[in-house]
Design a protein that fits this description.
Distance between the termini: 70 Å
Oligomer: single chain
CATH superfamily of the largest domain: Glycosidases
Number of domains: 2
Strand order of the largest sheet: 13-14-15-16-17-18-19-20
Largest sheet: 8 strands, parallel
Helix content: 25-40%
Shape: globular
CATH class of the largest domain: Alpha Beta
CATH architecture of the largest domain: Alpha-Beta Barrel
Radius of gyration: 28 Å
Structural class: alpha/beta
Number of helices: 16
CATH topology of the largest domain: TIM Barrel
């Protein structure tokens, strides 16, 4: 064989090896693509929103693989200070505090010392700051006595950190504005007020020991409002009860059905959240948006051993299809009929049409029932398998920015009662654990299981434990409900939660920048805390 022939033979062999390698690479890429696709709900001719996925037909998904290959971090123990409870009431008159600019004191019999400080000119750097010497490490209530010269808002600062924002409308009298349950170590603390808009006068600053925090108690058993609750719903509620006050269950909202946020958490922290929170918004008869396979995604997560959570951001049933008050012309109060709610909630489709023809209910009211029925039909796929759901409909009603809260508390409570009764009695959905998230006491309803708060903070605010929000719900619910953080913009401080005795049952971090913007160390420490529960915990305990 000539050298030339040998050269071409070697070249042919090299080409064969390269072709085999290239094929292997392409196969690996194809396999990776197939793995990634199984994380989303399959888009096939047979797959629809109302199609159930049985446990045996759930495709192999990447979650188990990611768990096996996830980074391993040591458990993070709590670091709690030693508290020394003692009586303390410390006061600094505003005119004796540090201030600058055009502020000056004036005389008034209404004030504690006969004088007050006034003269804010609207400059951003203007503030009044009082120095305190804190006698012992414990929790305190921080109070400022102020009056609005004109309606406006401002901030209370602790050592230059914003710990509370207030708004004043009364321009006649001095009022006490208090931020409760703030932990302070022994030593100096600086308290300041700083207007954001409007002008204020200040009488005094006060720090007193807090006595309410230590009285917070966690019950061993919280019952469900639905007396016919399914076996697994009762089991989940029992699990939440047993761990309430002892652990925080981790939760994460997803932007779709592919679990990319949950996978990101696992790849970063080595852990999956215990609760997968999804949204239902486009699933409305009045919406032209593409429907998502929210129910199937919940079922897949439950099969993996996780807890499913769903929020219903309900597009207006008629008119402009939007959740936002200022974008839709739908009026809830106009849709409320004279017909008794107990009768309305049990009407079948034929009776609804007849009631519209007889002008007993409006088309708008019928549209409300239609949407409830549509959502209920979807939820039946989970009920048939007794997959319990942390169910949060009609969130943040007290804010008024959503149509279901815009017409006031009475209309909202009517809608909640209709929704609850129609889903549990007419549609026999007994796998739901109802989360009330009305945000205001006026909007509190009768039938619910968990009271929750959405908590988003300014960029310069630390999350801490959100003691004030916890105590607000604790009082509002008369200590009879499990309390949770239904949405938040960052993860809680686990040390602060247990230091302040405000151990929320669970939390749900929002997606997008709220998750991706967190630094890795914060996320890792949170998910590896000795006092959080993750997917590996609940799948072992609830299976």
């Amino acid at each position: 064989m000539t050298k030339k022939n040998i050269f071409f033979l070697i070249l042919a062999l090299l080409l064969l090896v390269f072709a085999g390698s290239f094929t292997a690479v392409m196969v690996r890429k194809q396999n990776f693509s197939e793995t990634a696709e199984t994380k989303a709900v399959p888009e096939t001719a047979e797959s629809t929103e109302t199609e159930s996925i049985s446990e045996t037909s759930v495709p192999e998904i990447e979650t188990e693989t990611l768990l096996q290959n996830a980074p391993d971090f040591p458990e993070v123990p709590l670091q709690l200070p030693e508290l020394h409870h003692q009586e303390a009431v410390l006061t600094v008159e505003a005119e004796y505090a540090a201030y600058s600019g055009g502020l000056h004191s004036e005389v008034s019999d209404e004030c504690s010392n006969g004088e007050y400080l006034t003269g804010f000119s609207g400059q951003e750097d203007e503030k009044i700051q009082a120095a305190f010497m804190i006698p012992s490490a414990q929790h305190y209530d921080i109070t400022v006595s102020i009056r609005a010269e004109m309606p406006g808002s401002g901030q209370i600062l602790l050592n230059s950190e914003n710990i509370g924002t207030f708004t004043l409308h009364d321009t006649e009298h001095f009022v006490r504005v208090t931020v409760s349950g703030i932990y302070l170590p022994a030593g100096q603390a600086d308290i300041a007020i700083q207007p954001a808009d409007g002008n204020f006068s200040a009488d005094y600053f006060e720090i007193s020991n807090n006595t309410e925090l230590e009285k917070i108690k966690y019950q061993k058993q919280y019952t469900l409002s639905d007396k016919q609750a399914s076996e697994n719903a009762r089991k989940l509620m029992q699990y939440l009860s047993e761990h309430y006050g002892k652990y925080l269950l981790t939760g994460q909202y997803t932007s779709g059905t592919d679990n990319k946020e949950l996978d990101f958490i696992c790849q970063t922290t080595g852990k999956y959240p215990a609760i997968r929170f999804g949204e239902i918004q486009s699933d409305s008869g009045n919406s032209s948006e593409e429907k998502q396979n929210s129910i199937q995604a919940c079922e897949k997560w439950a099969v993996l051993g996780g807890i499913a959570g769903l929020s219903w951001n309900w597009n207006a049933p008629s008119g402009v299809a939007s959740i936002w008050t200022d974008e839709t012309d739908f009026s809830l109060s106009d849709a409320i009929p004279e017909m008794a709610l107990s009768e309305l909630a049990l009407l079948n489709a034929e009776q609804i049409s007849e009631a519209v023809e007889k002008h007993q209910i409006s088309d708008a009211c019928a549209a409300i029932l239609r949407d409830i029925d549509s959502i209920s039909d979807m939820m039946k796929l989970l009920a048939e398998k007794d997959i319990p759901v942390l169910w949060r409909p009609l969130p943040e009603a007290g804010g008024g920015w959503y149509w279901w809260g815009a017409d006031g508390a009475q209309a909202y409570r009517w809608l909640w009662d209709l929704l609850y009764q129609r889903m549990t009695e007419y549609h026999q959905l007994h796998n739901l654990i109802w989360i009330w998230n009305g945000q205001k006491e006026d909007y509190l309803v009768d039938k619910y299981d968990i009271a929750a708060m959405d908590i988003y903070l300014d960029e310069n605010q630390e999350f801490r434990s959100r003691y004030e929000e916890f105590v607000t719900l604790y009082r509002m619910t008369k200590q009879q409900k499990i309390l949770a953080i239904s949405e938040c913009g960052t993860v809680p401080d686990m040390n602060a939660l247990f230091r302040d005795n405000t151990v929320w049952s669970f939390m749900g971090l929002w997606y997008d920048d709220y998750l991706s913007g967190l630094d890795s160390e914060t996320l890792i420490n949170f998910y590896n805390s000795e006092k959080v529960l993750t997917l590996d915990n609940v799948r072992e305990d609830l299976q």
